Amino acid sequence: MSDRVDALVPFAPDRPKTRLSDVLTPAERREFADAMLDDVLAALDAAGFSPRLLSTDPTNRDVPETVDERPLTAAVNAVLADREPSPESPLAVVMADLALATPRALSRLRGSGDVVLAAGLGGGTNALVSRSPDFRVDYHGASYLDHLRAARTVGATVREVDSRLLATDIDERADLADVLLHGDGAARDWLVDAGFELDAGDGRVSVVREE
Amino acid sequence: MSDRVDALVPFAPDRPKTRLSDVLTPAERREFADAMLDDVLAALDAAGFSPRLLSTDPTNRDVPETVDERPLTAAVNAVLADREPSPESPLAVVMADLALATPRALSRLRGSGDVVLAAGLGGGTNALVSRSPDFRVDYHGASYLDHLRAARTVGATVREVDSRLLATDIDERADLADVLLHGDGAARDWLVDAGFELDAGDGRVSVVREE
């Protein structure tokens, strides 16, 4: 567990967080996506991962970077095919919008399993570790069930990580409440600076923004 | 860890799941809430808990039951005050709509800590265990942060359980997708029988219902 594990972090700076367009301008969405990426990269580093960006455009960040303009699935699979993960040389793939991800939650990915999967809300796959040279991803639709199936198809053992902090990708207005409630990094600071506050109603807590 | 832990399961049969009223009739919401309760009670039993319903009306179920018409917070606090949880005699409080809760996820609540908390999406508290005679609940608004504070105020040690399966309470249409995707009990069966299917779009997977 002491060796650092390579972690690929896909990022699309050109089209950030379109489902937040009802509350944030395009420029704000870019800033907020950058803040979340800051948090994810810092948490990965603290959890013993060596992150590498897989970006659709150069970001000029101080972190190793692979630029690939193709859609997410094709770009990740190209790295998996080239990299050939193995038990001695695992590769993680961690989404850039996991603003709640703590080092402790991310560390849970590092345990045993040829393929380790952390589901997102609504059927996605927010983080995974592969130690199998044959496992490939398909992020379209309910990818989590597809990934369970794909792992079995290549004979890989699967371990599922049950984590709220890894499940909460920040896509929609309601998710911003979870960042304000549970976050403690750059993304939360950005939202506070932008005027967002919690709005406690009878159901789940939401957010309001100062005019 | 071998002793069974008492678990209180609040349930309001008279006003089930109002935020699902756009997709389910009142009678259907009652049936679906009952199916989720079946799943939660079975999972608690399998995880070594002894569940007791805290219901606003008699349910005639084959499970110990306390009837208290008061709102959630008052009813739970009355039990906490009467029961005086301690390290030797902990008490769990687990929401009835955790349709994804597995025995394994619920078992994680049983570990150490004067107060053990599992957050829900949007700031709620979906499950807790108290070993403190002084800890009280307040389920209004962002209860999770309030419960962290309340535990500290009474000098209780806190352990947070980071679980997607415990975080996903089933309140809204979008949550039904998670039951179809990840559930394997009565609630999932009920949704399938009622004609619900996954609807994979570009974002999170949602549900559609056969006409």
From TrEMBL, chains A, B:
* Top-rank EC class of the record's enzyme: transferase
- Source domain of life is Archaea
User: Which Pfam families does the record cross-reference, listed alphabetically?
Assistant: CofC
Gene3D superfamilies annotated for this entry? Spore Coat Polysaccharide Biosynthesis Protein SpsA, Chain A
**Reactions listed under catalytic activity:** (2S)-2-phospholactate + GTP + H(+) = (2S)-lactyl-2-diphospho-5'-guanosine + diphosphate
- Which pathway features in its UniProt record? Cofactor biosynthesis; coenzyme F420 biosynthesis
Q: Which keywords are on file for this protein? A: GTP-binding, Nucleotide-binding, Nucleotidyltransferase, Transferase
Report the GO molecular function annotations: GTP binding; phospholactate guanylyltransferase activity
Whether ATP-binding counts among this entry's keywords is no
Q: Which GO terms describe its biological process?
A: F420-0 metabolic process
* E.C. numbers: 2.7.7.68
Q: Which family does it belong to?
A: Belongs to the CofC family.
Q: Subunit arrangement?
A: Homodimer.
Say what the protein does. Answer: Guanylyltransferase that catalyzes the activation of (2S)-2-phospholactate (2-PL) as (2S)-lactyl-2-diphospho-5'-guanosine, via the condensation of 2-PL with GTP. It is involved in the biosynthesis of coenzyme F420, a hydride carrier cofactor.
What the entry lists under PANTHER family is as follows: 2-PHOSPHO-L-LACTATE GUANYLYLTRANSFERASE (PTHR40392:SF1)
- Identify this protein by name: 2-phospho-L-lactate guanylyltransferase
